[in-house]
Specification:
The complex is a heterodimer of chains A (about 280) and B (about 110). With about 280 residues, chain A is of the alpha+beta class. In chain A, strands 1, 2, 3, 4 and 5 form a five-stranded antiparallel beta sheet that branches. In chain A, strands 7-8-6-9 form a four-stranded antiparallel beta sheet, covered by helices on one side. In chain A, helix 1 packs across helix 6 and helix 3 crosses helix 4. By secondary structure, chain B is mainly α. Chain B contains three helices and one strand; from the N terminus they run E-H-H-H. The chains are: A alpha+beta (about 280), B mainly alpha (about 110). Strand 9 of chain A pairs antiparallel with strand 1 of chain B, so a sheet runs across the interface.
């Protein structure tokens, strides 16, 4: 029987409460030395990434997070059997121990900020026009250079403006973070896509700071999410197919998106991951 | 079973759209199969040419900004860049490639361009 891996935890004890995972299977801990791999049995590979399956995976990881330090596994991590699982645990034991120690008592929070790229660019064009230097544009080549130069200046100022905004925001959020990862302008409108690793006892301070920041410039739109298992902060010294790769960060976005979409679009949304009891 | 994570926003549709755009910007793998191998190779080669073209263009803009190009040099650089851009547009059209397809996901390093 194949095993579906949800994550690695800092305990070799059996899980006392009943947790059900994908296909409604019982979730249990496979001990290895003083840590464990949390799995459930699965009969067939998952064909499609459905909203339900993503949220079920996430719900198990979060349930574990309440009692253990968790290194969440990549969605759709299926292992051939118990022997393969134990062999994998043996290969990565030191890495797992280091990560579990580093991530102990810490939670991941996501902050996304949208601005209107069009409006920002329009304001830049306006400002640049004021100080514009005339370039002789008699020939097609010179006109081409002139157009390219204008675009270059707009892009340069757009990036600089994004840097300035992000720097200010990050000063506030970083106060409470052990680690962070910031991505600027993933799309023109997505000014900031950040994840912060926060000590459990600083969670409220972090949330309060977010509320404070949110009441700032009305031109910015915010998304706050968490607490998550530390999807983006597991660091392995050797390449792994099951814990940290680009798809792992994708799962974080998939869960966020599933939860965002599950809510009413026109009113304030405070959405809990609504995975029904199985 | 109910998970505890909260996703909180006043603009769910806008965020959903931007997350989708960011996720779909680049394919995770190059689609290489016998039917599309020509296009796949063209995409790879044109991506590298596009990278070099953009670097040249940026360098030229820096020199224009610094005022270190004479009128004749601006004329020459402009003509070269214009021809290069036109040729790239032709090649993109021939292979049915869009601007946003000419990029590579370098994993943890991010996107090439």
């Amino acid at each position: 029987m194949k095993l579906y891996l949800y994550g690695i935890i800092d305990s070799s004890n059996q899980i006392t409460e009943s947790i059900y995972g994908l296909e409604g299977s019982n979730v249990y801990n496979v001990p290895f030395c003083d840590i464990g791999a949390v799995v459930s049995e699965i009969s067939q590979p998952i064909q499609d990434v459905t909203e339900g399956a993503v949220l079920e995976h996430e719900a198990v990881a979060e349930k574990l997070m309440a009692n253990f330090t968790v290194l969440p596994a990549r969605f759709q991590t299926i292992i051939d059997g118990k022997d393969s699982l134990l062999s994998m645990m043996q290969s990565y034991y030191e890495d797992f121990k280091d990560n579990l120690a580093r991530l102990h008592n810490k939670l991941e929070f996501g902050i996304k900020i949208i601005w209107s790229a069009d409006k920002v660019k329009k304001s830049i064009v306006k400002a640049l026009k004021k100080g514009e230097q005339r370039m002789i544009d008699s020939s097609p080549s010179k006109r081409f250079i002139k157009e390219k130069f204008e675009k270059y200046k707009i892009d340069e100022e757009f990036e600089a403006k994004a840097d300035r905004f992000i720097k200010v925001m990050d000063i506030f959020f970083s106060k409470f973070a052990s680690e962070k990862k910031l991505k600027k302008l993933k799309t023109d409108n997505l000014l900031l896509d950040a994840v912060y690793l926060i000590e459990k006892d600083r969670e409220n301070d972090f949330r309060e700071t977010f509320e404070h920041i949110k009441s700032g410039p009305p031109c910015l739109r915010y998304l706050f999410s968490g607490p998550w298992p530390p999807y983006n902060f597991v660091v392995l010294s050797k390449k792994s197919d099951f814990l940290r790769d680009s798809e792992q960060a994708d799962l974080f976005d998939k869960v966020t998106k599933c939860q965002v979409l599950a809510g009413p679009p026109t009113q304030r949304l405070v959405r809990r991951a609504g995975v029904d009891s199985i | 079973m109910i998970a505890n994570s909260v996703v909180e926003t006043d603009w769910p549709e806008e965020f959903s759209e931007e997350i989708e755009k960011a996720q779909n910007a680049l394919p995770k793998k190059i689609d290489a199969n016998p039917k599309t191998v020509e296009k796949g190779l063209a995409k790879l080669v044109l991506t590298l040419i596009e990278l070099i073209r953009k670097l040249l263009e940026k360098q030229a803009m820096r020199r224009v900004e610094a005022g270190s190009l004479s009128d004749e040099e601006i004329e020459r650089v402009g003509e070269t860049l214009m021809k290069l851009e036109n040729k790239m547009n032709e090649l993109k059209q021939i292979f049915g490639l869009k601007d946003e397809e000419l990029n590579l996901n370098l994993g943890p390093l991010g996107d090439l361009m």
